[in-house]
Design brief:
With 251 residues, the chain is of the alpha/beta class. It has a single domain, classed as Rossmann fold. The protein is built from nine helices and six strands. α7 links the parallel β5 and β6. α1 packs parallel to α8. It is globular.
């Protein structure tokens, strides 16, 4: 599975990337093992000569998302469409190094990028419907182009209202047709709120509410202090518990 980190510049994508890679990343794409207790129990019981846990390929090679008129570069779009899952890193910390002079507002930033994902898909759908409307084959019920046009007509309304495709109830046939477009708002999404070290132990109520709303809509969301996680990742395993305890945190 390919997981792409997305977000504005300076939100901590690369820091989180290195933390997830436990300090072992050599470039901007790295394989990260997926913890699985069942796998570990099987290995312990069977004791094979070699055991390879499941991994995901984490990508930190996607362009930063812009805050001006053109949010997504073509390079970003090409890379994002190749991903199986998008991990949106949202700035939830104060920093004088932030490249854009805006107050910290995780709700605004998360919603703005979600809206851009939906708008990008909407433009593709509207353009494709227009082309199919002029196609002779699309006028024949039962033809592949006719079916495609009907599916696109079904989703253009929700997209126009700002609804991501991942929230729509689609049949297997509809999903198969849409899969070829590699729509961004159809891809699974996870939202990571990068918080200050001071907030790592206790996230404020408004952010908790926002994460709750996302989870209710089927989008996993969590708060993390990427800088702190990177520091922990670079420690010897035997020192990690002591370091966390000194900060009043748990593993």
């Amino acid at each position: 599975m390919k997981v792409g980190l997305i977000g504005y510049a300076g939100v901590g994508k690369t820091t989180l990337y290195h933390a997830a890679a436990r300090g072992q990343a050599k470039g901007d794409i790295t394989a990260v093992p997926v913890p699985d207790e069942r796998f570990e129990r099987i290995v312990e019981a069977v004791k094979p000569k070699k055991a390879s846990p499941a991994t995901v390929l984490l990508h930190d090679d996607l362009d930063d998302i812009g805050t001006e008129k053109k949010a997504f570069s073509q390079r970003f779009l090409d890379a994002a469409r190749r991903m199986d899952l998008l991990l949106h890193v949202v700035r939830s910390f104060d920093s004088p190094m932030a490249p854009f002079a805006r107050e910290v507002n995780p709700m605004r930033d998360q919603a703005a990028i979600e809206d851009e994902l939906v708008l990008t898909d909407l433009q593709i759908v509207e353009s494709r419907i227009e082309r199919l409307t002029k196609s002779v084959q699309a006028q024949s019920p039962g033809s592949a182009e006719y079916t495609e046009r009907e599916v696109l007509r079904r989703i253009v309304g929700p997209l126009g209202e700002g609804t991501p495709l991942r929230l729509l109830q689609l049949s297997e046939e509809e999903e198969a047709i849409l899969r070829n477009f590699q729509f961004l708002s159809q891809k699974p999404l996870i939202v990571a709120y990068n918080v200050d070290e001071a907030d790592a132990a206790s996230v404020d109520g408004s952010l908790q509410e926002q994460m709750g709303r996302l989870r209710e809509s089927g989008v996993p969301a969590f708060a993390v202090c990427a800088t702190l996680e990177q520091e922990i990742a670079e420690l010897e395993e035997s020192d990690q518990s002591e370091f966390l305890e000194s900060l009043g945190l748990q593993e």
